[in-house]
Amino acid sequence: MGREGMLGMFEEQVLLAMAHLGEEAYGMTVRREIEARTGQNVTIGAVYATLDRLEAKRMVESWLGETDGTTRRAAKRFLRLRPEGAEALHTARDLRARMWKGLNPARLTGGRPRS
Questions:
Q1: Residue 26 — φ and ψ, nearest 5°?
Q2: pTM for this predicted structure
Q3: CB 6 within 8 A of CB 59
Q4: Alpha carbons 73 and 19: distance in angstroms, whole number
Q5: pLDDT given for residue 80 in this prediction
Q6: C-alpha span between 66 and 85 (Å, rounded)
Q7: Where are the domains of the chain?
Q8: What CA–CA distances, in Å, run from 7 to 16, 34, 112?
Q9: pLDDT tier for residue 22 given thresholds of 50, 70 and 90
C-alpha cells in the first residue's frame, strides 16, 4: 500500500467506529462511538470532514436515508465501509503490530520506570 493509502489516526478511528456500528453507522453514531471508546470529545465537523476524505479515497460509501416528511430534519447520511476501507484497517493493524513487536518497554520512558 502506498503512502496515499495509509490512514491517519482519526481516519482509523472513524473506520473502526463504522465497523463496530455496521448498518447503524451515520455521522452522529460514529461520533458517539469514538467518544465512548476513546474518552475524547470529537466534533461532528471533524467526523464529516474525515468521512468526506475517506469517501474520496473510496474507503467509505454513503447515501441519504429517507425522511418521513413530518420534520424539518435533514435526511441521515448513512455509511458503509468499502472493501478498500477494510483493507486499509487490516494494513494499519499489521503495520502497528510490526512496529510494536520486540520493543523494549523501557525505551518508551527513556530507561526510567513508568510511574
A1: -150, 170
A2: 0.83
A3: no
A4: 26
A5: 95
A6: 25
A7: 7-66+74-99
A8: 11, 16, 32
A9: very high
